[in-house]
Design brief:
Length: 187
Amino acid sequence: YKLLRGVRMQLHWHETPAFRFAASADQVIDPTVRKNVARLKDYGLSFDLQLFPAQMKDGLTLVGENPQTNFILTHAGMLTGMEPETTEAWKTGLRTLSAAPNVYAKLSGLGTFVHRNDPALIAYIVDNAIDILGPDHLMFGSNFPIEKLWTSHAELIKAHRAAVARHGAAAEADIFWNTAERVYRPA
């Protein structure tokens, strides 16, 4: 599989049953998961890490055990709401994972929990992700066709471009091209 670049396993667990995919909150540090993720370096593959903020400390354990593997935090860490305790937990989780140089985040699926294209929410997530991880550790992802449930591709791109543009041309180049090119190495 010459063009394969990485794998994703939905390890996210949440107190709200409708939000969870994993069998348990600690599945990210399950011995079988750890063993299999450790093999990715042998194939030059990345791992898309799909976690909620409460799991990010365990996520850092997995990341730390695999310094030769790039980890891409799916949906920028899955912010589920704008309540102060929720946003603070999300920012704390991002800060936890930002300690590892091999962690990147995908600015994708930002409408997942609000079921709409919300430019203000996208800007909030982009601003904080840039502040915590840096634009050179962020990449855009459309999450289409899922996002098509509540927006058009053009409107989604417009909202992300507006949020990123405020951070300058270098940030735009990183988020919309350079980071993904460096991490995924397209042919």
